[in-house]
Amino acid sequence: MIANEHLTHVLPLEVHKDSWGSVTEWKVVTQGGFGAGRRLLKGLYPPDITDFGPFNTEEEATKLADRLTIHIKNDWPEKRKRNGRKRPK
Length: 89
What we know:
- By secondary structure, this protein is an alpha+beta fold.
- The protein has one domain (about 5-75).
- It has one helix spanning about 60-75, and strands spanning about 15-20, 25-30.
- It has a two-stranded antiparallel ribbon with strand order 1-2.
- Strand 1 (about 15-20) and strand 2 form a beta hairpin.
- The mean pLDDT is about 85.
């Protein structure tokens, strides 16, 4: 799976609120509905992110979403180009 071909399934990242009883958690999810995680850290120089949530505040989750969005838009690897040589049969 080439990352740039599937950006529509990832971006925009969304911040979701989960509440049950007196507990409220905030998390970042992809457009496809999957939780943010290490698989989004592609490229040569991914940001150093150790905590992907869930978070106690919306602000923390929004900061993660913004940071990942910038990384995905700027640093995800491009599709590799072939060098034009054909394999011998």
